[in-house]
Design goal:
- The structure is a homodimer of 233-residue chains.
- In chain A, a hairpin with a 2-residue loop joins strand 9 and strand 10.
- Chain A starts with 8 loop residues before the first helix and ends with a strand.
- Chain A has seven helices and eleven strands.
- The first copy, chain A, is elongated.
- Chain A folds into two domains: 69 residues, Winged helix-like DNA-binding domain superfamily/Winged helix DNA-binding domain (Arc Repressor Mutant, subunit A); 138 residues, Chorismate lyase-like (Chorismate lyase, 3-Layer(aba) Sandwich).
- The first copy, chain A, is an alpha+beta fold and 233 residues long.
- The longest helix of chain A is centred in the first third of the chain and has 13 residues.
- In chain A, strands 5-6-7-10-9-8 form a six-stranded antiparallel beta sheet. In chain A, strands 1-3-2 form a three-stranded antiparallel beta sheet.
- At the A-B interface, helix 1, strand 4, strand 8, strand 9 and strand 11 of A face helix 1, strand 4, strand 8, strand 9 and strand 11 of B.
- Strand 4 of chain A pairs antiparallel with strand 4 of chain B, so a sheet runs across the interface.
- The first copy, chain A, binds a DNA duplex (19 and 19 nucleotides) through helix 3.
Chain lengths: 233, 233
DNA sequence: CAGTGGTCTAGACCACAAG
DNA sequence: TTGTGGTCTAGACCACTGG
């Protein structure tokens, strides 16, 4: 018998969760159906449904109509990665953020970028190179291609003043994106810009964002040595 | 007038989403309250609630009692990172997976690992070094510390045969974990094991998992050059 | 076919926090 | 104080899919 009543969906969720963690219900096991659990917990089926859906979203349960609800065979393999706005990431550490535009031009993107963005060969984009600094030390180097056809307002913006990422966040909504994380050795220009030595291991984040099907921007962020990206399961 | 009826929560979600994407509702804007939207869409308030909660979970809306619902100022900054089981990651690419245990011993973990795991100084852990291979080529080097107090059954397992990660997934549930991603240059032993050269940039994933408050395992995966981690917003 | 989860509804009450 | 979201309930019907 439990002392605490199980009369809200979060209580149901933690009860079910603890049964999974206790291994009272093991990976692969079929658990009772919603109606039975509602009866047991003394609440409505909708409440049980809410709790089980939350657990299924977190990857702890597998649910299928008619087949019932099972404890997931391979529990929680999802982590939520918070994509930081670099300014915030730096300011959260009580460091001073600054931003410097290195160059800005209109040009046809190279084939690899064009392929990533899914653009026609003739499309011109704006290329922005910029440096983000923390306490006046190089933090990340930004190499961005911006589809001006998709975001015409961008051509009127002065990116000397406006941080491109922050401007886009406010002015160019996107619906989808993909991110690739990797490591690379610093080449000569990277080493110079980031004030490090050639060959250093750098953390790289490539990000492509789209609005419905049209590419907005493709950005490569190359971080100064020592950068870590943290996340929680 | 819309042709399609908005009578389920997913329809409400996409309608609201498209108003955000249209910039009919801009970042920072207050949107109508649930009751009004329910009236407009011709559905129950609970249905609207479901839709708006889903959007809020995705970071597109900020909701506060009494203050109402606003379009998020900094939309979608969350990506879901799927933590792969290395075997699956390799087999999905139609490569042959193999696994080799390099060494296994019982020892007190070094202070940095102990701190990460939050263990007392006297606790002994099992250290496992292993190599994951794809098509017989080194793929990732695994350096794992396993809290045998938390998972006593582990001491009886033969990790020559059983891949530690897969065994733990099936036998040691965890409730929380944190992940750190970084880049480093290969040192001599890493270069040797991964069959690469000293100084190469390697992608590193450090993962700590706990069951409630007790540390289960701390694992460092060092990937062979060229590794990329992909994810979607 | 029939059992399971998925969802809607109308109404109700509660918890929180802005003014 | 009071408007807002958060949640519960009971009952209903639907959608999917296993056997």
């Amino acid at each position: 018998m439990n002392n605490a009543e199980i009369n809200n969906w979060q209580a149901v969720r933690s009860e079910v969760l603890s049964r999974i963690q206790n291994r009272q219900w093991k990976p692969g096991d079929l658990i009772p159906n919603e109606a039975d659990l509602a009866l047991e917990f003394g609440c409505a089926r909708a409440t049980v449904n809410r709790a089980l859906q939350a657990l299924a979203e977190n990857g702890l349960l597998d649910r299928r109509r008619k087949a019932g609800t099972r404890v997931a065979l391979h529990p929680v393999r999802k982590a939520t990665l918070h994509i930081p706005i670099i300014r915030h990431e730096i300011e959260d550490r009580k460091q001073a953020y600054s931003y410097a535009l290195i160059s800005s031009k209109l040009d046809k993107p190279p084939p690899d970028i064009r392929a990533q963005m899914g653009l026609r060969a003739t499309v011109e984009c704006m290329q922005l190179l910029a440096l983000h600094l923390a306490d006046s030390r190089p933090y990340a180097y930004e190499d961005r291609w911006l589809n001006v056809e998709a975001v015409p307002a961008a051509s009127k913006v002065d990116f000397e003043i406006n941080n491109a990422n922050e401007w886009l966040v406010m002015n160019a909504p996107f619906t989808a994106g993909d991110i690739t994380l990797s490591a690379k050795q610093a080449n000569a220009p990277e080493a110079k810009i980031l004030r490090t030595t050639i060959g250093q291991a750098l953390f790289v984040m490539d990000r492509n964002t789209r609005n419905v099907d049209v590419a907005i921007t493709s950005v490569k962020l190359t971080f100064a040595p020592g950068y870590q990206l943290q996340t929680t399961i």
